[in-house]
Fold each of these.
Amino acid sequence: MTIDESNYSRFLDQVASEIDIPPGKYQDAVDRYQAVGRWLQDGDYAGCSAELSIYPQGSFRLGTVVRPIRDGIEASYDIDLVCEVPLRKGLTVPKSVKFMVGERLRENGTYKRLLDPEGRRCWTLEYAEQDGVGFHLDVLPAVPDARGLLDTAIAITNKTRAGYFWSASNPRGYGAWFDGKNAAAFTQVLLEQKQSIQRRAPHIYASIDAVPDQLVRTPLQRSIQLMKRHRDLRFNHHERIDYAPISIIITTLAAHLYANETDLYSTLSGIVNKLQAHATLVEGKAIDPSMATMRLIQRRPDGTWYIGNPVNPDENFAERWHEDNDARARAFFSWVGALQEDLVNILGETNPRFFKERLNRALGAAIVSKNIDVIMPPDVVIDAPPRIHITSPAKPWREE
């Protein structure tokens, strides 16, 4: 069996589309977070003379959202919303800002019913749907932390056993950086994808112009979705979950390494192979000089690791990688190696049964079976596992 690379790329694209948020669910999420935003903006907040700023962040903003897997089953979508309160950081405290937002949510009977207990950084509204697909809407209280007119930095509330404190963040700046990495490919696919989405969902979007940019997906965004899906399945165990690579690291490294490839397989293989070149760092060895120039993943002389936030180099996404004998670093590169074998090098697999089994483990059996015809024609025979019949077994299997 030989798999055509272009067909395989099309298969990966269809799988990524399946794990993405569909247009109807996307619009439901937008309607809900806009309603929450209006409610928050209409509130009265001590010391505020301007309007709150409400905007999405994270995978929903970046177009890399996937339906997560928890305890072996697909769970509700996570939607992250920043609630930026126009107060000077030096004239307020994080606990006060956190509870301003929480109390305003509780003033609404519906939101009070949906509200979870206070989280470490945010307030979470749990939306359940009749079809079993719901949303976790995380509302993240924050204040401006800009140091210049063009600075979009914020300080977000954070709670630990020691109390409340501020953490630095800049989701709007990060979003603009990611958009820059994605811009050329986005322009190339924009019209065709909007036309396709409008044809598939005319009851939601009456015209092409009504289709939001946030539903357009480039090979970079699709690659990140597939990487996150593979991550979710590989670390879907209680003893592994704490060491699962975090999404911001996956997204940042993938965006840095994207070379504007135009098809999904080339994009994914390019990103994964470049990441794998850094694996020698775990054993304290030098990496390929062609990879070293970017210094995206660094292991410092003191044994700590560094993956910088591209809009705030002082923020280290890998600040915990040295803990537990570099457990998170080892888990990351072990995952990258599995990703390379499961989704990149798999084109070298010639046995149809093994090929499908590997895809099942990597992406999920149901979604693979639904789309496998793109790369494996129906007349291909997938051999069943060999059955062995022993006619004269030795004890203890032989009955006397």
Note: Confidence is low (pLDDT under 50) at residues 386-400.
Amino acid sequence: MVAGLSDRLPSIIRGTEKLLRLAGQAEAAAVVASARAELAEDGSDRFGEGWILRLHLAPERYVSVRSRRATVEKSVREIVNEVLLAEDDHVSRVVLCPDVGGEADGADDAGDGVRGPAGATSREDLLRLLQQQRDLMVAVSTGGPRINDVNQDYVSRRQIIQAALAEVGVADPVPYEDLWAWYGKWSSGDLPSYRSRREYLGELFSPLLAAVVRGPGAGAVSAEPTGWALVDRQLGEARRRLGSATTEEQYQEVGLLCRETMISLAQQVFDPAVHKSPDGVDPSPSDASRQLAAYFTDKLPGDANEHLRKHAKAALELASHVLHKRTGTFPLAAICVEACVSVVNLVAILSGRRDP
């Protein structure tokens, strides 16, 4: 029977990790995500039907959780047995142990993940942890859970986040060591309304999330004002919405705002009497892609500018591609904003709005 359960172990582990994250137990979820899982029959189980779930951890991660091992083991055991409710099986014991023979299978290869005292954390996991941290800060400051009930979750998650951010060379702009420090900020009168607290956290986390998406060594794309009021307002709103979005629909709204920004940008610079679409099709008033392609062709003519036209075209095509994605996720929405900012900057430069 253990063979059959072992075959299903990867999906069981994924389900356990997901439930732990949804329950706000970030540290236990990170442990499960990075471990090499193994099942064995539990001979001490009085009914002879239980299993031992051993989670082999990279030495660094094992050391980081050793003092809280019993708590983590208990949390994982409770959740994994919820996953197993329909399996007619149960795990009687969860055991964390160091994988001294090498890194846990869940660890990422160098360059693909981020590493710190808490062990290997994938970039996707880091994004999820940052969004969970932001959501918890929003919740406690807008009538949600009591700080005493969730403060340890915040502190544990913060430790993992800071170690992971250090490995990708991204500074942590969140100054609050615990939720009581965050309480001091919002209760001081600086953030009197629920809306002001959400907006503040959006502005705090948005550039951080975008920096993680870009990866190590990538410079930030600035969004300096262009002087075109509607373009600047729409792009600014897209960036703010990105910082506070948590659902697929909200991420799609970010894409919609980027689309409107591109249309407004094209309307500022496209002149049908001067700019001719490269494919010979007259663009409609809302066809920002063709309008801007025509603008780039006019502003960057000749063989000497071919590489610049290719760059402009690539940025425009990327923006157009992600704008029409119907699935809403943070990485897609963040890439959409960055691509939109790049096109806005290109047009602002070519139009003379960034001249000294």
Note: The CA atoms of residues 29 and 101 lie 23 Å apart.
Amino acid sequence: MPLSDMAEKTAALEAGRRVLRLEAQALNDLAESLGRTFSEAVDRISALKGRLVLSGMGKSGHIARKIAATLASTGQPALFVHPGEASHGDLGMIGNDDAVLALSKTGETRELADIIAHTRRFDIPLIAITADAASALGRAADILLLLPDAPEAVDAFNAPTTSTTLQLALGDALAVALIERRGFSAQDFRVFHPGGKLGAALRTVGELMHGGDAMPLTRLDTPMPEALLVMTEKRFGCVGVVDEAGKLAGVITDGDLRRHMDGLMSLKTRDVMTRCPATVSPSLLAGEALRRMSGRITVLFVVEDQRPVGVLHIHDLLRQGVA
């Protein structure tokens, strides 16, 4: 490799590391600076009867859109209003029960002026994310989330880099604090993410399992020839064994058959079954069920009060795109 090419690659690597370290330090400074106003912002947002309206211009606008999307997907009604469009009619999207979260590093973005004035006129709570408390946005805000004084990653000019990273991280911090405040669960999350791999992983075992007559079940004292017929008919590669009370006492798999090959047809299910098999509940997330199917486990019985209510095969999970 020519020396010039090597020097360029080395310089690129050094630049990348420098930027990441600079932004990491700024994030640490932001974490240390959080205080009362952050808690006030969480209190105000969680108590809203309406929506949280986010706005920003340029790169701050892109970050505001992402924060709005994160909040909306985690149970906090939120939307983005472009400040330019707000001045031409979209102010009507901001209601009296809403609050506004405005982003601007300098706090002097003139396109935000009409939104700021609208919040003051109609007594709509205004939360600001800015690096300048003395700016127009900082002075107008009811709650000020102040960014630390951190340099942008570009030495020659102040291209939004570190500041937008801080805005994004602060938005994530608000979202997570709100999630924990309201006890938002994985099941709740799935309501807003029904599609794709994430949606599949957040489905429950009860939605994917085979129940009723589809379950391969037999009794404790069933002769093995009869148990093998059930096992073959149901095509799960196993059969569950229930006791007199209808509780799952064990499971017979192909491995159990191989271990009892000698004299198998003269035995009964209680002689062959594996006792205390791995089971799952109908409410378990599909993604977690897949994690439990480690090693040689390909089928799990689904139980409630120790009674089988369904059976789940690893193929059921794979077909749904859980893996």
Note: The chain has two domains: 3-184, 205-319.
